[in-house]
Design brief:
Keywords: Lipid biosynthesis, Lipid metabolism, Membrane, Phospholipid biosynthesis, Phospholipid metabolism, Transferase, Transmembrane, Transmembrane helix. The protein is mostly helical. It contains seven helices and two strands, in the order αββαααααα. Helix 3 runs parallel beside helix 5. The longest helix is centred in the N-terminal third of the chain and has 26 residues.
């Protein structure tokens, strides 16, 4: 297994740690960040999410620069992203920071695209992420990061940046999903 794939695997292993931080009632105190409090454990979990998210850029950059792109990496990298994003979105609904219907739409798109990838894999094809898909991922990661940090630093001015970014991410999620299916419809049409 090459280094980019190991980095991707490390992102997958960070997900349970992130979930534990977000669900276990650690009493680490909190900071006042303007109009609300930011529990220290949420801050640590948010930073862990950001670090895990950055590994997506690092493994992709390293794989392209050193020509280490593999079919395993093309499969594992988006899967790791989906697992991380899905865990964070579900936890944001539990926290009351994200509307459930938005999360359902985002996760539905992710499952649909994953299903299409599995059909393609059964046909011996690997479908790489598109530029719209990368934009979708970037907007999701920004929205989730800000929401995990209780809208910090925008909470000082009462501006709902995290929620606005979540709706922007929803737009790009839907758009990239439609684009992905239109461009790869032949996979569904020609599957045996």
């Amino acid at each position: 297994m090459n280094i980019p794939n190991k980095i991707t695997l490390s992102r997958i292993f960070l997900i349970p740690v992130f979930i534990i931080l977000m669900t276990v009632d650690f009493q680490w105190g909190s900071w006042n960040i303007g109009t609300r409090d930011l529990p220290v454990v949420d801050f640590v979990a948010g930073l862990l999410f950001i670090i895990a998210s950055m590994t997506d850029w690092i493994d992709g950059y390293y794989a392209r620069k050193y020509k280490l792109v593999t079919n395993l990496g093309k499969f594992m990298d988006p899967l790791a992203d989906k697992l991380l994003v899905a865990a964070a979105l579900v936890l944001l609904v539990q926290m009351g920071a994200a509307p459930a219907w938005v999360v359902i739409v985002i996760l539905s798109r992710e499952f649909a695209v994953t299903g299409l990838r599995l059909v393609a894999a059964g046909e011996g094809l690997v479908l790489a992420a598109s530029k719209l898909g990368k934009l979708k991922t970037m907007t999701q990661l920004i929205a989730i990061s800000v929401l995990l940090l209780h809208n910090f630093p925008f909470s000082y001015i009462g501006f709902p940046f995290g929620l606005i970014m979540l709706y922007i991410a929803l737009f790009f999620t839907a758009l990239s999903g439609v684009d992905y299916f239109v461009k790869n419809w032949h996979v569904m049409r020609d599957s045996k």
